[in-house]
Batch of 4 targets.
Target 1
Amino acid sequence: MRLPPVGAQRARDLLGRFAGLPVLVVGDVMADRFIIGRVTRISPEAPVPIVRFESEHTRLGGAANVAHNLAVLGAHPRLVGVIGQDDAGQRLRRELVSAGMGEEGIVEDSGRPTVEKVRIVTERNQQVARVDYEIDRDIEGPVARRVIDRIAALGAGSKAVLVSDYLKGTITKRVMEAIVSMNGSVPIVVDPKIPHLDCYAGATVVTPNHHEAEAATHRRIRTDEEARDAARDFRARAQAGAALITRGEQGMWLSSDALEGAIPAAAREVADVTGAGDTVVATLALALAAGGTLAESAVLANHAAGIVVGKFGPATVTQSELLADFESAH
């Protein structure tokens, strides 16, 4: 079974409601730093390419990329996350301000570095290596209390909550309980990780990719029927209202008590899947906040994913790009 498509007029109506919608984002914020250079020879010291430096730049990653996606779509994201007291954290703060977002929800932890992924990339966007700076233990003590306080302060009045869990320590059972108990009937969208499945009880929808769904349910997913069964099992394990499995070139599968079905892939040309999941959950949560049904919101998220995978690195999608994609499909 396929879910019905969303017409261009309905997409235009929903997109028109995005402006200024307050959405709380809680999760693992990251700095994605790209060191770009030219490769012309192999090192005589080891069989590795020598990258001659040309430039570098930092992009918002993880939960910060989710918030950036919301901002570009016209929403008013309120971001809560943890950084270290280091240069990477200051760069991340500057990027947040540059993107027009507040940093009042950012909590500093002197006992851990800011999560930073440093990618060494050629001028042709080929990744040579990646270096990760992180400590992934759960937040606790005063840091955890400050995070929960920020959630309470910034969550008031939010039309949706988005949880971006990268297993870097920000999302804990206690943090999830604070989110669920605070927001009542407001939709809660969770980008999950398998070790935390027991934490997500009460979420409106969880959005595993097909690898995560296979691992959590011990099922192979090759057909729509297998996706259906895995989605049912996944949402039962997570105690969530719905599950949206992202399946790459196979599109998505949505499962809830009210409906379930496939959403065909909308990708045209894939350049880089980095951050595509961030775009999916941002669009999904914002469409729900705008009054879209779960099915309509999932279809909008699918179109957004099809656009963003055509861009390099953590990227965003604009309202005009989304609307043009719907108009070209109808």
Target 2
Amino acid sequence: MKQVKPIIIVGAGPVGLTAAMLLQNRKIPFTLYEAEPELPDDLRASTFHPPTLDMLETLGVAAPLVAQGLVSPTWQVRIHPSGERAVFDLSVISDATSHPYRLQCEQSKLCRIMLDMLIAEGADIRMGVKVEGVEQDDHGVRIALRDSKNEATTDEADFLIAADGARSIVRSALGFPFKGKTYPETTILATTHFPFDEHLEGLSNVNYVWKEGGTFSLLRLPDLWRCSLYPDGEESIEDALEPESIERKLQEIVQVEGGHKVDQIRPYRIHMRIVDDYRSGRVLLAGDAAHLNSPSGGMGMNGGIHDAFELVNTLEEVLNGSALDGLDRYTRRRRPIAEQEILTQADRNRARMQERDPVKRRESLQALQRTVADPDAAREHLLRSSMIAGLRKAAEIA
């Protein structure tokens, strides 16, 4: 491999740190810049799909992550309060993955594992340094930086990997169109240590649930439950965030004398957006910087990690002498999969759970139950919902 100036990575989330570990393993020099001085512990993604765990295993990360998470061999769609449900068992695809389950674990734990490993190996990680500008020419990329002491500096490299999230400074600076839409509803994420599994028969660790006139989801982590709630009817988001409203919604799930103890509450809007091209010259976007989707199905973070693997594999070939336009393969392989398999599937998952017509809900549940009962259909459904089918399609693209 020719000697190159360090590659710049912007963003120390799961995507940027995955790219960093892949470069480190290939002895490709890089510098990673993260705007925040410390890794955040806030509520973000928490579901790892089987192929993502297979990939992370190649980096020595899967085992310590699994040790901190909750193995979830099933997931389900159900009706509340009757408990009618369709339960998908990932053992059906055990021949296609070394990890036939979803792992429920906060993404912050993955980031800490990766960052510690990178620092132990002497990686060049610059925390608390913000990117303020990006420009490039045929020979390289230059960025303007500002550190925690408000001192301005610059850096340059042959290539830049932008993994700086939904509000990507790099994407904005270079004018990547980010087309799509924002969904009308606001999701309210509430966490609690209440043991829903001891009160709702047959609950999985991942549950998407219809209730009368609305919906909610229950996702279990090792020491708490994440409850995704929504305003009722014409209720404003401000009213829905009031403790009385949160308590009313949780009481609808399980009645508890004395009320539920809620630890954190966070509202957020959901988007479906994607850039036209993951590459502009020597700058490559990955993860939320390139695409945003509904969290229904837990595919956003996973898709970003898959981006990082494809990106680094392609970038390594260029660094070894392939033509620069070989980087276009990264877009060819990842963008259609994100658009057709991630955004579309997540949009369909969201639409199913937002359905309010009881007749259509029952038809949907019955269709899912028929899928579960048919071994071939269940396998196909799980290969797709677990993101394995999309990765196989991507690998076939030249």
Target 3
Amino acid sequence: MEIKKSQSVTSVLIIDDEKKLNDLLSRILSLEGFNVLQAYTAKEGLSILRHEDVILVISDVKLPDANGVELVKSIKQIKPFVEVINLTAYGTIADGVRAIQNGAFNYITKGDDNDKIIPLVNQAFEKATLQFNAAQLKKKEKANINFDDIIGTSPAIVNAITLARKVAATDTTVLLTGETGTGKEVFASAIHQASDRASKPFVAINCSSFSGELLESELFGYKAGAFTGALKDKKGLVEEAHNGTLFLDEVGEIKLDMQARLLRLIENKSFIKLGDTQTTKVNIRIIAATNRDLQKDVDAGNFRMDLFYRLSVFTIPLPPLRDRKTDVLLLAEYYLKEFALKMGKSTIEMGQDFRKQISRHQWKGNIRELKNVMERIVILADSPIASADLLPIQFDANNTDNNPVDLAGVERQHIIKILGHTGGNKTETARLLGIGVTTLYRKLDEYKLS
């Protein structure tokens, strides 16, 4: 199979401390048209992964500073779309199983499986490319959200939309506050789309996803040689957002030293890349969001007062879903239709008992929780009417004494059905169930499903 390698993310990273094998594999893949990067330790490999356009990793299992099977987890945390092939000199079934459970694409033995390398790399490359493109499309869809796409008629959400519409036409810095899952990125995108910058980039970053040093390089970019793994100049997200909007989600998680750099960016519209001596000027609008009480953080000395005032020129509080009771059914109906369309199923209507249960639920996870629940409902529904018994067990917790039920049996069947829908994909199953992968494996053992 011939794979097009013209995408912006095409590099294959080889992590192996055996230099001869690393060089040989690098040469073979280079002849196949891949851009190959090499590392000899896990630490060096992860540094390259963070800062270069890697789409596939081939990692030895036995590394000087890490176990390659466990390294898969770290790789997936940094870039979920990246696929990993584990190589080992002495393969074991246990290691192979664990590698796949950790998210590896495949696990093969050196020497015995040389003829499998190229086909495997092409297959893994194709899968990773599809995942990368899907993630980019999702980002693009988010960036195109406007105020008409925001669902809700409750006074709390209407007030938030009114404020956002008014500030959109200006270049004022905006701070969106509210609990996790209340739609802060949706509002940021809508403000961007209603502004004069709508045709320019909307660049979003979750500040809590990066350590201080990595966040600095992601935001401001760097020059080649600025640190280990910086093999070429890289443009940061601030520069990518030039003439557009930079959305800083979870801005309250930024460390104090980085807060100073962010303050200078807001005040001077300029920054210095890591390893550079020249100042780079940018024309950007900043929208920030947080689920923290930044005033309390300021009082505690954890957040700069001057930065807080710069960010909160225009603050828009977003209401939790429990304060938007009249919007719950509207949102549920919307997501039921959306997921039915995506899964090629008929539209699912809400039964009376179903409506009653979701209307009185507290929705502590806000819109994000509601969306996940509706996705599960569409998967589970075998009829065009959604009934309350399809809802997770906690929705009917108050009624279990009056209506005894084998909760373990219900949970077991629920897991079986979701596993069937995902084709046995444990990571996706755990996501749809709203639990961690470790918890899922424990339940699979408990219910003898593994």
Target 4
Amino acid sequence: MVKPSEAATEVISLTPAPPPPDRRPRARRVWSVVAVVAVAGLTVAGIGWASRRTTPGQPADQRIAVQTAELVTMDMSSTQSLPGTLGYGTARALKGNRDGIVTWLPAPGKSVKRGEPLYRVDDQPVSLFYGGMPLFRSLATRNTVGRDVRVVADNLIALGYAIGRQPGPGARVAQTTTTEQTATEQPTAAPATAEQTAKAPSAAPKTAAPAATPTPTRTTRWVTVRRGEGVLTASLQAAIKRWQADVQLPATGTIGPGDVAVQTGAVRVESVSVQPGDGADGPLMSVTPTAKVVTVQAEVDQAGVVEQGDRVTVQLPDDSHTAGRVAAVGTALKVPDGSTGPNDAPKLTITITIDKAATVAKLDSADVQIDFAAETHKGALVAPVGALLALSEGGYAVQVEGGGLVAVETGIFAKGLVEITGDGLSAGVKVVTTS
């Protein structure tokens, strides 16, 4: 038996044990590349990098879902954007063409259609007719032929008056004119000498010869009707009389330049230049078309790529868009109204009509932006702009789904899409994209 005092004494040094190793998975960083590129008016954002950590419990080798887009072929157009003005177009002066006193004028802003009075002279209405040329003579003689006769005939038909049959192009009509001629005077005899007078027997006093009576002479000539001309037939003159009676004009069957105002269509009165009581033989008012249009003042090189009939997009003040069409491209260079600077260059006026008038019904005037198609590529291979990746050595690439990067050449950019070409790329190939 061993006694306690005899037992060996063992000194044990207690040192805290090191903590067990952390068995949790280390955080892994997953990097993704986001490229946003903008060319030809799109915002340039450059290259951005984003990172996130995997959470505990997430498998380290889990793949991150990416968004892809399929390449497609379509027609691509580049655009040029120009400022424009929505309104009723350029006002033009309307002149009166008859003697008399203006007794009534329409209020500014009023629209006038075919057959309605545009103003009154000596309390007689001057109605609006549609046509491409004004009346330039009095139409009174039967079988008068001309394009002005066609204007009258077309308007009476449109107003519901029967004008009878009109000779067609190539028809020949007889025009008869009457002139008055007096009988040819007899030559006067030479005065008698004194000797002849002495030998001559006395004669009864001579009486004065009766005055010559004018003799009417009729001349007939045949006129060939050309395309676009009308003939003042008896039935057309009868229709003119009926129309004159309906609008409370003297029913003479004769119509002249001051009896109607001929315009290309319905008009809107922009402003009046005279007051009732003024003479009717000068500028009376300014008128515009009734349909709203957009006018664009363009440099010569800008207007050079625009043609009548081109489709355009109109951006309105509320950022909405509506479709339009180029109605006309001006050919006369002039400095726009309100431009007074010495460096203001003359410009051409482009007129654009709106497809749906209801989209601008609440706007009388506004500043708008017009997108013109400047260049079109048919059957282009197209990808979303978000699929472009900027390469460090320059240029761009796209990443094929499940594959690597493919360098691409870019073409037209429009509406978030870009035209691309690259090795192995075709319609149906899927590429990684941000949107």
